[in-house]
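Section 3.1: Structural characterization of target chains.
Under the original work plan, the team committed to producing a structural model for every single-chain target entering the pipeline before any wet-lab resources were allocated. The record below documents one such target. The sequence was received from the expression subgroup and is listed exactly as submitted; it comprises 353 residues.
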Amino acid sequence: MEESYIHQNRIKQIFFLVCIVGLGLLLARELSAFLPAVLGAITLYMLMRKSVYYLTGKKGWSVSLSAWILMLGSFLVIMIPISAVVSMLSSKISYAIAHTNELSVALDNMVNRIEAQFGVKILSEENIGKLGNMIAKTIPQMLSATFNTLATIFFMYFILYFMLVNGQKMEQALYEHIPLKDENVNKLGFEIENMVLSNAIGIPVIGFLQGVVAIIGYYIIGVKEPWFWFVITCITAMLPVVGAALAYVPLAIIFFANNQIWQGFFMLVYGFGVIGTVDNIFRFALAKKIGNVHPLITVFGVIIGLQLFGFIGLIFGPLLISLFILLLRIYANEFFVKHREVATSDGEPEKLE
């Protein structure tokens, strides 16, 4: 009997694979807090890579200068709207703090009217206690979220700079070391770029378009401070399932509380019938046109992505589902096709029974 044994090279290979996987899992666990920054950097890199090639190749700029100019431009494009929203919301919060008693009386009157009109008990002692606990927990969470957001933005641009400067080397290294056929590597890169562009551009555009449709109705109905609610609508429209209802449903409640019955009903009809409808039309049509993304992938991907990655999950949630489907296709192309080629290498096609 021949004595079976494991070849020494195979033992070395297994040892190195175990070390690589173990260290990779350890690093992934310890650096998981930086994942949103990494994903954000990847998103911006996908959007800027062609501009870098244009500035360095056509205009003759240095890579470093091109990276700094593009990063500054993106920072302004991202931070100016965010700063405007924060300023708008902070002014509302400051007013609420300065007029706490007046707002409390107004809130009590509104709640009493709703309770009397619909026969529902809203402001019980139990609900007040829950509301107080929720507010007490929410304030520290908001402060922590603000700090985490600033840290994420800083590390995102820190990572992005090196990606832009070393973009060609990085892409070449990935191309050479991914253990797939060249056609499948190209397919993988094309799919990732399409999905990132589809969501990074499509989702904000959809939110803005829905806000434009909403503000038309706000002016018709006579909503106070329509531009404030326009901003709220644009932000909430980017969220899946509920979406802009987080803006127009509270508006309808405010109308009902002020005895503006027809405005309240009109707000609900316009919200669910028009704003909600164009949301689905814009979301599916635009995502399908830019990246050829199936609507179900967009919806379920956004839901999963928000749970995994936070706000950046709006982009990378659908990408995860698309990558899963793409990897199944690549697996079939890599192995099943090879198997068929080997099975029929004698020149005669193998007949299936």
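The two ends are 38 Å apart (CA to CA).
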